[in-house]
Every structure is written in structure tokens, then in C-alpha cells.
Queue: 2 jobs
Job 1
Amino acid sequence: MAKRIDISDLSIYYGAFKAVEDVTMSVPPRSVTAFIGPSGCGKSTVLRTLNRMHEVIPGARVEGKVLLDGQDLYGSGVDPVAVRRTIGMVFQRPNPFPTMTIRDNVVAGLRLNGVRDKKRLDEITEQSLRGANLWNEVKDRLDKPGAGLSGGQQQRLCIARAIAVSPEVLLMDEPCSALDPISTLAIEDLINDLKTRFTIVIVTHNMQQAARVSDQTAFFNLAATGKPGKLVEMDSTSTIFNNPSLKATEDYISGRFG
Amino acid sequence: MSPPTSGPAVAGPSFPGDPVTGELASSAPGPFGPGAEGGRRGQGRLGDRLFGGAALGSGLTVVLLVTLIGVFLVSQALPALARNQANFFTSTEWVVSGDSPRFGIARLLWVTVLSSLMALAIAVPLGMAVALFLTQYAPRWLARPAAGAVDLLAAVPSIVFGLWGLRVLGPLTGGTQDFLRDHLGFIPLFSAGSVSSTTTIFLAGIVLAIMILPIITALSRDVFNQTPTTHKEAALALGATRWEMIRTAVLPFGKPGVISASMLGLGRALGETVAVMMLVSSLPAGSAWSWSLFGGGETFASKIALGAGEFDTPEKTGAYIAAGLVLFVLTFIVNAIARVVIERRKAFTE
């Protein structure tokens, strides 16, 4: 199920503005990769190119390659809609569909894929909610609105919704930044469980979080405001945090800048 | 990203009193007096009180006005209703002069409701489609002028719509009306009527639809535009196509707004006078009852306007005012239904 991602010479533009320059990296399957770096360095932008979500902004385009198990996501004839069905995404703010019940939120993606079988939908609802460590909290109120849950529960509901369609890769864009420490811990535990089944890429501003959950860490930075963001260094998380090869990385990790 | 504004905020029919009193209650002085904070806060509180008072006053004025209009209608209608020899609700007669007037609103009610519902049936899907095109599909250079053009439609006076309907649309839709009558005539709604195709309820329905299209489009456009980006991205990230994104994120979010827009449109259609008066043929007294769209008749509003010449005694006028009272109550009910529908959705809109 999980697949590897290989990015080569990726540059990202918004109109004439070059937001990210020459990113090359590999993400092995069934692992957690964290993107860290100061605000505006392009880490979220890179994340969003991995499922072609950046394209919803008019004028956005990319150069370079993003390969999912060797298949180019930007090859001609590749439908962004199909890409997003294999690469799930969880956002910064929990965004369950407010008019839908908890159950409908979980199976929203399956419904888009045309699954109508009630029994199958119920099975996947339970599986996904269990997978997102939310089942015990909501099993008695599946028909209540998803917006009625707490922030942390909503975020786990969004994760359940993302994994319900059995994606190859799960992208998380600062999934805990709007949550309290306890909910954050719940999500981090969940990430640890999920990496046995999915390839996970997570953007985070919280370096302890990167250190806790990820197997490898990529540090992004930009030379100056208005310049494109770049991948500075990528290595195993323990190397990045204990023994980085570049001074800039060490400065950022130790809080001396950024 | 701005917090998602809920639909009902822009949604139309509301009693201005509620939010006003709510605001006032929350701005009432708390347990901590202004003392220690000094003069600046004291001024702020005076401002609060002035604004709160002004807002409350405006709210009460509107409620008072509506109440007074209701009282006026009832007090003027009652004497005439007391003299009425026919059943006011079921009779199709309309004789208001003489010692034993016989009048009823059955036909007026049917023509009013039929023409307005037909207008709604056309204008709501069309208005939503236009609003979705403007907010979700049209490139920016096209969206603005196109939205402006729709708004311009609202500036066209009723009388012009009446003339246009009579001279242009009537002849144009004659064929369609004949076709519907010939092929669906077995349904009472499409049975043959007694008037020419340029003066039917059907034609009025189309013209009314065009007249209420701008308001439905403009309000729907506003709510669709407010769909939070996070909802839209949630749908897109699940692999929704643009239409699926609209179905899962934009339409549910906009639903309460579209409902209240429709009710505002319906309110306008129910009360529209001049265009209907010009377009729809009156029926001679004693004509047989007809369910058909291809018949003539009068709506409440056009009946009252056409009867203005008869307002010479309180008794005669009272009969028309009684009809006006029913129209008043009808629009009230329409608004109440809209409120109920919107309230019921509230639990699901944050």
C-alpha cells in the first residue's frame, strides 16, 4: 500500500514568483518524514505539490519531477484528481465538513469514489475511526455533526477521513498547530501507528514534535525575504538533531535563529 | 484564513429585534464599575449605551411598524368581512358593491401562488447556476462584469418587464405553451385555458422569474463566495472534481443562504403588481374554475390595483383590504417557513 516518493530538481512558481528552488529528496515507504524550517521557507508549498494541491491557486506551476514509485505525478495525462485520491492530506485547521455527520465525514471520500454499499461503508467507518483512535469516543454518536467534536477529535476525524480511502501516502500540514498538548500527543501516537501502513510526510513548526515522530527530517530555509526557499539539509532525524553537517541547520535546531 | 461565517448571517428574513436585544444584554455593565479605569472607559460606556439605545430603538420601530400595518389591515377588513354573504376563503365571486356583497379569495390565492411558485421553480435553479458559475467557474475578468449585468437586471422597472413580456416574450413562448398544452394537457396544470397565450399565468410566471433572478443570484453568489477555503480544500484533497467539490463543500455551506434568498424572491413574486396586471387577462365574472397555467385571472396584488377605482366606500375598500391582509399573512408564513428551515440546519453549520 505505502509507496516511496522521489523528488528531483523541483522548483515551484506562483506566477512569476519562484517560491521554492531545486528540491531533491527521497522519502522511503512506511516512514515518517518531517519538514521543518522558518515560516515562508516553502515547506508547506513543497508538501502541497506532492498531491498537486498547490494547483488550486491560480498561476501555480512546477518544474522538475515528483515520482511515486517511479510514476511521475506531473507526467502528461496524469489527472490531479486521481493523484489526490492516492495521496491523502490533513490540514492545519481541522476541517470536517460542517453539514455532515461524523459517519458521512469519514466516508465522504469513498462516496466520491462511488462506493454505495451500506455494509462496506459501515465497516470502513469503524476501521478508519479505530485507525484514527477515535472510535471509542464517537461510536455512540456517529449521526451527530462532525463540527460538534473538540478540536483534537475533529483533527482525528479528518485523519480518519483521509485514511478511509486507503491512500498510498499521507501528507500532514502542521496537523497539531491548532491543538492543545494532550490532543497533540494523541495525534503523535496516531502517527506512530499509521507509519506501519502509510508513507507519512509531516510539516511542523514544533521541533520536539519532529524529533518525536519522524524517522528523517528535512530542513528548509530561504536566503532572504523574496528569495526562493531551498532544502538545506536532509538526514535521519537523530543526525539532524544531534549532529547536523551544516551550521545553518545546527543554528536553527538549537534556536539561535528562525 | 478568516473564520467561517455562517450562512444565516447574510440570510435575509430576520426579526431585527433579536440581535439588537442580544447585543444590548451583553453590553450591560458588569460587576466591575468604571471607577478605577478613569474617564476614557466612562466615555466608551456612554458610547455603548447611546449606540445600544439607538439600535434598540430602530429595532423596536420596525417591529412596531409591522404590528401597526397588521392592526390597520385587520381593523379595516373586519367590517367588510362581517357583511360578506359568501365564504371568504372558498368563494370565487367578487361582488363588493350593494347591500349583500359576495366575495372570496380562492381564485386570487391560486393565481398568486401558482405564478409565484412557477417563478421560483425557474429562478432558483437558474440563479444558483449563475451564482455557481460566477463564483466557481468564471475567470476573474469575466466574473465581475457578468455579476454587474445580473445586478442591472434588478434595476429594470416592473413596467418595462410588463411591456417586454407582452410584446416580446408572449409571442416567443406561444409555441412552447401550445406544445405543453397539446402533450401534457391531461394534467390539470397544463389543460387548455380560456385566454390567449400572450396573457397567461404561465407567461407571468416566466416574467416574474426574470424579475426575482437578480436577488436570488446576488445573495447566492455572496454565500457561495464565503465558503471557507478549508472546506473546499478538504473536498479537493479527497480527490473531488470541481463539481464534486461544489456538491460536498459549497452547496451545503450555501444552503441556508439560498433558501432565504429564494424566500425573499418568493416574497417579491407574491407581491408583484404592475407586471402581472399588464400581462394576465382578467376573467369575466362567473368563469369556471381552472387549475391551468394557461388561464387568466388576478393575483392579490393585481386585483387590488385593478380595483382601486372602487375604493369609494369603506365597505368596498374593506373587501380589498381583506384580500391584502391574506397576502400579508401569506408572506409572513413564507418567511416563517424559511426561518424554520434555516434554524434546523444550524446545528450543522458550526
Job 2
Amino acid sequence: MERMILKRLVASALTLLALSAMCFALLTLMPGDPIDQLVGSDPRVTPEDIARLKAYYGVDQPFWARWQAWLARLASGEFGYSRLFAAPVADVLGPALARTAGLAAAALLISTVIGVSAGIVAALRPRSLFDHVASFLAFAGVAAPSFWLALMAMALFSITLGWLPASALPSDPEAGLLERLRHLIMPVAILAALETAAIFRHARAAVGDALLHQHVLTARSKGLPGRRVIWGHVLPGAMIPLTTVLALDLGGLVSGALIVEVMFGLPGMGKLLYDAILGADYNLAMAALMVGAGAIFLANALADMAYGLLDPRIQTGGLAP
Amino acid sequence: MTASPAARARRRFFANPAATLGLVLLTTLALSAIFADAIVALLNLNADAVDFANRYAPPSAASPLGGDELGRDVLARLLAGGRVSLAVGLAAAIGAASIGAAIGLIAGFRGGWIDAALMRLTDLMLALPVLPLLIVLAAVDPAKLGFEGAAGPGASVVRIVAIVALVGWPGAARLTRAAALAARSEDYVRAARAVGVHPVRIALRHVAPSAAGPLIVAATLAMGQVILFESTLSFLGLGVEPPLASWGAMLANAQETVWEQPMLAVWPGLAIFLTVVAVNFVGDGLRDAANPRAERRR
């Protein structure tokens, strides 16, 4: 077990390293370089000054040298300075990460409870009215653009009915806790709805497959009561594939969070990345990308370890993303 | 009476109501995109004419969906936007399927460490969140990649097709790899290898055709996905550039004016939704028709 975890960690670290090189390369392909951005169109700065600044910050170095310098700074705990927020990147990143984690955790909790229970009920009563309605809603949730659903919810609840605010943060910074929570209802509910659609489909499929397993048929034919068949034989078999797809779906959760944050003006990781890329703040963008990727890797590694607990047969030799 | 496999597959496809509905819907959407100009002319509309008298105009006989914030006709713009959205979707789906087919074929046919490395890349692409990846790719300056003079609305369409195809290939790669793996141990492939046919020729002539079915299904399903990708990027202002409008770009405008006229946000989103639903119905129908033994799960 320890060997396996160690192997996983090394593989994940190597993949993250490769990913950081890829992101770094993509960021250098974006318009302008840091010094051009810094200097802007200040007429007092001569071309000689720019050349000197570029040499000083190492911008004139080749890609590999700059990437290595970035890694070295990272190793000493240095994320660099965010031009957009005029603050160290770490100071900007911390609160944003907390907001996104809160948003995602709340949405994930709601959607897992609703999605998994609805999926089980639908799979146990295939082609019932409940199954048809839930499957249709889930399909619609996956096929409709997420930003459109958010826009429609905004139009309905904020504009037409006037029940809920259309921003994630109150305009009054002194607002009380209840008012703050009221602003968060729509962002959390929309993200939860999107995620519920995906989780329901996976849970429905996983339980449907588990119902066909030989040991379930055996348990049934030997006359075990339905309740014990489901809790003792069907659900444990369904948990393994479900854990895999839930971990894989985290990418979807991150994308959904980005859309919700941008649309409702919640300064979390997704909005930070969006603003950083559009504002050419590449130190911040790089840090946000790496922290996000690290979180996804960690979640996938945890899911893999969860299999070991769920299913003793599994020998995880494969390398994880 | 024995029908050919293709005829039987066709019959199975049309026996499936969802697939038939999807095909009808998709054909309607495609025809309205192809003949957008003719329809607009026939209805005596104009997609680009700014007319402030028609600003936020309610639906009427002359203008069935009303006017937008500049008084442009919404139906005419919807038809023109559909042309861009569907063209980008089709081109990017073909691109994504081609990339995926190449990667899957190489991985499945070569095996060994090449297979391991390519599948690891595929798994990585599937695990990474799509939207941040799309945003990063969309912000890349084409001039720095050596595409000088690649500016303007037309170039933005080519750019977005490339970006979306670069992100949308993993599904096709997995399916093609599975088909290639299965074909690799078939007798006819072993026979070809035994008589010394060049590996590239075996891959293209003997293995690739058996992957064609899954690949068509993958390309169809990928089209739904890439249309969603394109609309999201255009919504975020990183997609097609004005004055060209895709449905996603129309929704970006509609968000700004949603307080004045919420209905403007309804139509383009509904159009995207119907397209993705239709594409998925057709894709699922094709898969079931081509593979009658596979159990039908929903």
C-alpha cells in the first residue's frame, strides 16, 4: 500500500511538472511580455531602459531557462507578484481558493446527496414515471450550456420575480450573515443543479449495471429480501465505478464553478484565472493554473485510494492523472 | 429475405424514435443554416441593419422574434449565428475526431510504451477541467506561433475551430484505440503481418476500417460537445469576433442587456440546446444501430 501511494505521488509530481512546462509555454505565447506590460506606453522609458529591465528580470532568456527560474522561485515558496491586483500572488490566491472551495464543496454535497439517491431510485424502477422525468431533466442539464442555464435563472429569479440578487457578493460590505448567504443561494444552486445532472446519470448507470451482476442474481434467487439485496449486494458493487466517475467529473465541477464565478462576480479561483488571462497577469495565471491542477490531481489520487478500501480485489498499479 | 447489414442498421436507426427525431431536428437546423440568407431575404429581414426604431421591439408579424438592443432583427441574427455555430461545430468535430483517430490508432496498433504514454495523455486531458484549458488556449497570440496577419473575424473562426478540436479529441481516441486493439489480433491482420505488409499500410488498410463505425459515433457525439465549448468561449468574449455572431456570442450580448430584455437571452440558448440534444440523439441512435447486441442503457 505504501509503495503504491509513493508510486502515485511520484507519477503525479512528474505529470504536474510536465503540465507546468506546458502552461508556462502557453503563457509565453500570449500577447506582450511582462516588461512591455509593466512599462506600458510611458514615454519616459527609453528602449535602453527596456532592454536593461528585460535583462534584469530574465525575460530575454530562452524558455527553458525562464521555466527553471520559475521552478526555483516556486521551490522557495515564491509565486511572484500580481500586476493586476498589485499584491503578492499568494495573498490574492489564498482567499480566492477558500471561496471556490466553499462554493464547490457546498454544490458537491447537495448534488451528491440528490444525484446519488435519485439515481438509485431511478435505476431500481427503470422506465417508471420517476425514471423518465429524472432522466429527461438530467439529460437537459447536460445538453444545455451551463452559462445559459445560469442566465435563465438570473432572468427568472432576479429580474422577473425579484426574489434573489444577481450577484454573489452584497454591494454593502457591512451586510449581515443572512444577507451574504442570500446572495450565495443562486450561484450554489446553479452549480449544484449542473453537477446533480451529471451525478444522476452516473449513479443511474452504475446501479443499473450492478443489478445485473451474477452475485445479485444469486442473492435474489436464494430468496434474500429485496432491501438486503440492494444494501448488501447492489450498492457496494455500484460504489466503485461511481467513485471513479465522480473523481473524473471534478473537472466539470471546476469548469462550472468558473462560469458561475464569472457570471455572478464571485472572486474565486475561476474568476481569478479569467481576469488574470484577460489582463495579461501571467504570474497570477500560472499560479492559479498550477494550484487548480494540483487540487484535481489530489482528488483523483484520493479516489484511487478509496477503491482500495471499497474493493480489496483492486491492485492499483496504474499511474493516475 | 436477407437485408444487407447497412440496411438492417438503417432500419434499427429509424425504429428508434429519439434518433429519428434528432435526425429531423438536425436536418432542419442544418438546412436553415445553409439557406439562412435565402430565408432572411424571403421573410424580408436583415441580420445586420441597425434600426433604433426597432430597439427591443416586441415580436410581430414582420419580425417574429422582435429586435435586439440595436434594433437588429433577432430571427435573422439567429439564422446567421446558427450558420457560424454549426459550421464551427462540424469543422471542430471532424478535427477532433481526426486527432483522436490518429492517436487511438497509433496507441492501439503499436502498443507498448507508446500506447501507455498516449493513453496517459488522454487520461490527463479527460481529468483536466476543460474550460480553463480552453481559456488559456484562446488567449494564445497566433502571431507568436508564426501566423502573421491572422486577424479579423474570419481568422477568429479558424482559431476557435483549432482550439476546440485540440481539446475535444480524447473520446474519439479511446474508442478508436479499443477498436484497433480488437482488430489487431484478428486473423486477417495477422495474415497481413505474416506476408510482410508494411505496418503503416496494415494500420490504414486493415485496422482503420474496423474503427470507422465507432469513430463516426464519436465524431457525432463530439459535435455536441464542441458546440458547447464554442458557445462558452464566445460567451466569455474569447470566441468568434464581431460582427460575426455565433449563438454563444449572441448570448454574451444578451447577458449585458438582460435587465432590459430578458427574452433576448432565451432564443440563442434554446437553439444551442436543441442542436446538442439532436446531435446526441443521432449519436446514440447510430451507436445502438451499429451495435445491436450492446445493451441499451439510458
